[in-house]
Each structure stands twice: as C-alpha cells, then as structure tokens.
Design goal:
By secondary structure, the protein is α/β, with parallel strands linked by helices. It is built from 14 helices and 13 strands. It folds into 2 domains: 7-82, no CATH class; 89-253 and 304-391, 3-Layer(aba) Sandwich (Rossmann fold), CATH 3.40.50. It is globular.
Length: 401
C-alpha cells in the first residue's frame, strides 16, 4: 500500500463493529514518526448514549474488513472523562483559574497586548473590535450577526455588547456549565441580544444558526477540535464575503509532545533563574543559581500523550494543522505571533502569579521572556500562540484530501 493512500478502519466496542472511518487526516507527529505523509489519523464521533454509560468502554480499531489491530488500536474509553460530567477542566463548577499560568501574569499580558495591538493596555479582542467592528457605526451594527466559538465564561460577548454591538450574537461552547454562567452574567448586565447554544464543533454547524455572520470569534478553541478541516470549512461557509474572523490560537505540537530542541531550551532558560525562584525544597542561598545536580532533579519533562488525554481528551489536538490550514481556507489579513513557546510550559516551575505583586519576580520573568523572544526572533524556535484576522476567500474550492 502506498504511504499516501488513505486507510479505512473499523471501530469495535467489545466484539461489535459500530462504524467505519477513513484515516486520511494529517498529524505532524505521525509524519515525523515515519507514517508516510502523516495523513493516517481519523475522527470518529462516539455517540453520546455510548459514552454516557457509567463503565469504561473497551475499544478496538482494526484495518477495515479484518481483525488486525492498527498500531495502538486497543484502548479504553473512559466515560467519566469523555462524558463531560464536570471533570472537563473547562467545564468545572467554577471558572478555570489562569492565575498560575503565564497568561495570568501582567508582564506576559502586557507583551501579548503590545505585540498584537501596539498598546500594552489593549486586549487583542478589544483591538479587533475597535479596528474592524466599531467603524461600521451603531446603525449598521444593529443588523450585524456574530458567532462566538468556544465562548466559555462569556467574556467576548460582553465586550462586544459594551462596545455597542446590538445585533444578534450566537454564543456557543460544548461546556454547558460554563455557558450557563456566561448566560447568567450577560443577563445580569442587561444584554438581551445573545443566544447561548451548546455546540460540538466537531459536528457540522453551518446550517444550524440560520444564515451568515458578519463576524466569527474563536479564542483558544480551534486547537481542541479533532475534525478541524470540517470545522474551518463550516466557518468559511457561514462567514459573509465582507466579514471578518478573529482567532487567538495555539499552533504548538500535538498533545504537547515537544521536540528535544524546544525542551532543552525551556530547561536552559529556567536554569538561569535564581534558585529561590525554582521549585526546590531547600531555599537557602536563594540568589545563587541552582546547582547542576539540583537542576537535574526538577526539569520540565514531556508528559505522555495518555496523560494529556486523561487531563483533557481534546487538548492540543490540531496545532500544526491550524498553522497549515488557516491560510488555505481564509485570506489572512493579520497574523501576529506572541510566543508561549517556553513560558507556556513553565507552570509549576516559575511563580507567574507572584510576578504580579513582586518586582523582583517580575524582573526575572522579563529575562525568561527575552530568552523566548530571542529564540523566536533568530528563527531557532517558532511562536506557538498566534493572533489572526481572517477573511473569506470567494470562489475557493474545498480543502483537498
């Protein structure tokens, strides 16, 4: 069989075949591992009834019309994780806490805002609103429609309304608990032009919301979508020819499987920090760097794919695909990278939260940021987080298989 030839697979639950899929989707890690051109991944939507059971489900994936397992084709589908019972970190009983992440640090946010908008006090979303939405004027905005993908706690919808957007807003997320909080907050602020809809973006949605949209918003959601090519085609289908799409996205490795070059630079940067800022049990001589022996005991390591999947089955699925597909599906009006290549992996290894109140910590964080910038500016590593403004491409053909 030729390396580029699509492969069909059968999906079994216990001894029963429940469906078939074509393994023709691209994954960068498969190409690196030598699986032809990397187009050997597939998407199969397990029914909600199936994953709602209380017991784990044994799944086998075999080459079509055979009993031969594909590599790594036997696994257990954990209904507790996949069923969305509150263990989903984005759908817990309280909003997700970003305070210990790089995105929760004011020095990092200032850099991101400045990189995208030129103003350290202007969020990329507000920059997009000011540049692409507000100029249409209040009268025009009454008839405009906006589609929000991955709306989560409702920040985007409320910022739109505060800026004078009075047209219809369809606010969607698969996280129903978070969406309920978004609805309550928006209603409490008196915004009545928002419709909240639970939507799995792996499923077709182009005909669900009744017509086209002037604006589409996607913040940190597209890299969670397994069926990403279909999702982007659906976005293009519902975006008006003169409309714009806003996206803030992760384009890094599949399930955070970092290459050695990147991993070594992450640890090298952390090793430049004073030992008092490292997660060491002994805090004596805090102004010295950690010894080689100490550093060898607290490195950043690459988590196994299975561990990432247990934390969030949808996490970091399609970063490389987004980087490849977005310019194919849309016309790129703006594209600005803002790093995260080192910093996003340093949670638990650097106290980002403390950098908001302690100038000493903030100053050393700026050293880490400068190392990351230098690596990206000189082409050693790439940005992993990127801001996009996109437009439709009239007359374009669909994505080639």
């Amino acid at each position: 069989m030729l390396p580029t030839q699509p492969v069909e697979v059968d999906i079994y639950v216990s001894t029963r075949c429940i469906g078939r899929a074509v393994a023709d989707r691209y994954r960068h890690d498969l190409q690196v591992a030598g699986y032809g051109d990397g187009r050997k991944a597939f998407y199969y939507p397990f029914s909600k009834a199936l994953i709602a059971t209380a017991e784990p489900i044994d799944v086998r994936v075999c080459f079509a019309d055979t009993n031969q397992l594909v590599p790594n084709g036997a696994f257990t589908l954990n209904a507790v994780v996949a069923g969305g019972d509150g263990s989903n970190p984005w759908n817990a009983g309280t909003p997700y806490d970003y305070s210990t992440l790089w995105l929760g640090s004011k020095p990092c946010r200032d850099h991101i805002y400045r990189a995208v908008s030129g103003n350290p006090d202007l969020h990329p979303l507000n920059y997009f609103i000011e540049k692409y939405i507000v100029p249409r004027g209040p009268a025009a905005l009454k008839s405009c429609r906006a589609l929000l993908l991955g709306a989560s706690e409702g920040y985007m919808e409320r910022e739109l309304c505060k800026a004078g957007f009075t047209g219809e807003i369809i606010s969607t997320d698969i996280a129903d608990v978070a969406l309920q909080r978004a609805r309550a907050k928006s209603q409490a602020e008196g915004f009545s032009n928002i419709r909240h809809v639970v939507q799995d973006l792996n499923e077709p949605f182009g005909s669900t919301f009744g017509g086209e949209f002037d604006f589409i918003f996607a913040e940190g959601v597209l890299h969670h979508i397994a069926n990403i090519s279909q999702c982007l085609e659906e976005c293009h289908r519902v975006l008006k020819p003169d409309g714009f799409m806003f996206a803030l996205e992760f384009e890094g490795p599949f399930r955070f499987q970092l290459p050695d070059l990147q991993l070594q630079w992450i640890n090298a940067a952390l090793n430049a920090m004073p030992r008092g800022l490292r997660p060491l049990p002994d805090k004596h001589e805090p102004q010295f760097p950690a010894s080689a022996k100490e550093s060898s005991c607290i490195p950043v390591l690459v988590a196994k794919e299975e561990a990432i999947a247990r934390m969030d089955p949808s996490e970091a699925l399609t970063g490389p695909e987004l980087k490849r597909l977005l310019p194919q599906v849309f016309n790129v009006v703006e594209r600005t990278g803002f790093g995260g290549t080192l910093l996003s992996y340093m949670t638990c290894h650097f106290d980002f939260k403390r950098s908001n109140t302690d100038p000493y910590v903030a100053r050393w964080l700026k050293v880490l940021m400068e190392i990351e910038h230098a690596l990206i500016d000189t082409g050693i590593l790439d940005d992993e987080f990127v801001f996009y403004v996109l437009k439709s491409r009239p007359g374009r053909q669909g994505l080639a298989k």
